[in-house]
Write a structure and sequence with these properties.
Layout lengths: L6 H13 L15 H10 L3 E6 L1 H5 L1 H12 L3 E6 L8 H6 L6 E2 L6 H16 L46 H10 L6 H4 L4 H13 L1 H16 L5 H12 L20
Parallel strand pairs: 1-2, 2-3
Length: 262
C-alpha cells in the first residue's frame, strides 16, 4: 500500500522481492475491472501488506482505506518509512502503534533496510531467513542478520493521580494509569505509547466498527505478545473510555455492536 508519489522506491523494493522469489502485487500490475475490487482482492489473498509511509501516504484517502482494510482482514502488516524524516501520527500512527518501522530514510543504504524486510517476513513465518539473490550490479556482501523480537510491555504501577475529564488532554502516563486503575492491563501491549488524543482516535474507530476493531486488536495482541484479548475486557474498555469522551451533537447515535441477535 503506497502513494504514487513514492513509487520509485516502492518499485525498487518490489523488484528485489521478486528477485528473491516472492510473489508481489502492485496496483500497476494485474488491474482488471474496478480498482477498489482489485485492491480488496489483493489484500484478501496476501500474507503480508507493506504500508509505505510518508506525508503523501497519510493524506491519501485510498491509502487510508487500504490500510484499514488490511487490519480488518487481519493481514500481517509491515510498516516502511519510504520518505523522511517522517513520524506517523493521526490515523496512521494509530494503526502502526507497536509495529516495528523499517526506515529506508535513516539507514545507510538500500540493502541494509531491505534485509530488515526479509528479517520481518521470516520472523512472522517462523522460518529461517531465505537466501537473498544477488541483483544485477554489485551490491556487496549480504547484510548481517538482525534478530527482531516482538515488543513486550512491562509497566510498573504508577502513583495515584487525578485524570482530566477530557480524554484528549491525557499524557502517555495518564493513559497507562487509566488502564492500571480500570484493570485493563491486557490491552496495554497494543496501546503502549498512546496519549489521550491517540486513545480517543482508537475509541472512535472501535465505536464506528466494533466487530472489525475487536478482531484487529485481538489479532495484533496475539501476534505481538502471544496473548488473548477477552471480549469482556474489550467491552469494559469501551464503557470506561466513554466516560471521558465529551458528548457532541449526534454522538449518541453512533452504534457499537459486538453481537447481533436476530
Amino acid at each position: 500500500s503506497y502513494s504514487h508519489q513514492d513509487k520509485e522506491l516502492v518499485y525498487q523494493i518490489g523488484k528485489r522481492l521478486e528477485e528473491d522469489n516472492f510473489r508481489i502485487w502492485l496496483d500497476r500490475d494485474n488491474m482488471y475491472g474496478s480498482p477498489t475490487r482489485a485492491m480488496a482482492h489483493a489484500i484478501e489473498n496476501t500474507d503480508f501488506v507493506f504500508i509505505c509511509m510518508s506525508d503523501s501516504y497519510k493524506k491519501s484517502g485510498y491509502c487510508e482505506m487500504e490500510a484499514h482494510y488490511a487490519y480488518q482482514q487481519q493481514r500481517r502488516v509491515i510498516p516502511l518509512i519510504v520518505k523522511g524524516p517522517y513520524h506517523a501520527d493521526g490515523w496512521l500512527g494509530l494503526l502502526t502503534t507497536n509495529k516495528m518501522y523499517i526506515d529506508f530514510h535513516k539507514v545507510s543504504n538500500f540493502d541494509e533496510a531491505y534485509s530488515k524486510i526479509i528479517q520481518e517476513i521470516s520472523r512472522h513465518r517462523g522460518k529461517s531467513i531465505p537466501t537473498m539473490s544477488t541483483p544485477v550490479g554489485n551490491h556487496g556482501p549480504a547484510p548481517h542478520s538482525v534478530d527482531i523480537k516482538p515488543a513486550t510491555v512491562v509497566t510498573a504501577p504508577l502513583p495515584p493521580r487525578t485524570l482530566s475529564h477530557t480524554l484528549t488532554l491525557w499524557s502517555e502516563d495518564d493513559v497507562k494509569y487509566f488502564f492500571q486503575i480500570k484493570q485493563l492491563q491486557a490491552m496495554l501491549p497494543i496501546c503502549a505509547g498512546m496519549d489521550g488524543s491517540t486513545l480517543s482516535g482508537l475509541y472512535t474507530m472501535c465505536r464506528t466498527n466494533s466487530n472489525a476493531m475487536y478482531d484487529s486488536l485481538k489479532a495484533e495482541l496475539t501476534e505481538s505478545n502471544s496473548k488473548i484479548l477477552p471480549i469482556v475486557t474489550y467491552l469494559k474498555f469501551l464503557e470506561e473510555v466513554k466516560k471521558y469522551v465529551p458528548i457532541t451533537p449526534g454522538s449518541a447515535n453512533v452504534a457499537s455492536v459486538v453481537c447481533n441477535l436476530m
